[in-house]
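For the sake of transparency, this paper describes our internal protein records without simplification. The tokens are whole numbers drawn from a learned vocabulary of local backbone shapes. One such record is reproduced below, unchanged from the form in which we store it.

. . .
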Amino acid sequence: MAGQLKKNPKKQSQLNPNWAQLQQLLKSNAFQNPSQTENPNSILGKRKSRSDDDSGDARPNPLIPTSSDSSVTDEIAMDCEMVGVSSNKSALGRVTLVNKWGNVIYDEYVRPVERVVDFRTKISGIRPQHLKKAKDFRVVQKEVAELIKGKILVGHALRNDFKALLLGHQKQDIRDTSEYQHFLREGRSRALRNLATEVLGVEIQNGEHCPIEDARAAMMLYLKHRKVWEKSIKDFARLKEKQKKRKPKKKNRSLRRPASINAENTS
């Protein structure tokens, strides 16, 4: 019985041929050389790259719409690109409107009334072929006016866009990121590019401008500060109402004084 017990372990080791293969694998460079683990063709290399991809340092781009809703919302962001015309002035070359989700609801190239002498492609991104089938200025002007009527209009330096469109808008419905107090630096407006980098963490306007991207950036800036922004507008409106109520009293007093003086002189 003792002899049989001594022989059994040997028989068990002989019945395990995988041990030999395992020893060969342990001796191979793939296990002995740490640099082999970085090989993208090895199994370990693939696992490592996959974990890096999962952890990823790249943040989701906030300018990419999170909804497919392309309806006309109560808030609309607008951005325009200009071209140079024969009168040495700027004229509308493209206008884009996006809804609060960042989805495009209007995007048209525009044929100016005057002859284009400078497409300003390096900034505007507009090329001659874009204006060959572009809409007439008056048509675009009318369509944009209808879309933004009664809406909260968001944008950056909107006065330039209004000037190019020959349009106006209700002051209380304008949300201009170039004039919002919290976005100013030492009382001065800042470039949309800089605001997008600092507040949203995205880079825009690297080369040719994209009005879709710019409009989305302005909308995201507004939405990020909407609660405080809207509260400041309401507070300012209340303050104005109080001032209006006080003004008539001052006027009445100033009007009474001359009357009393005249009465004394006549007596």
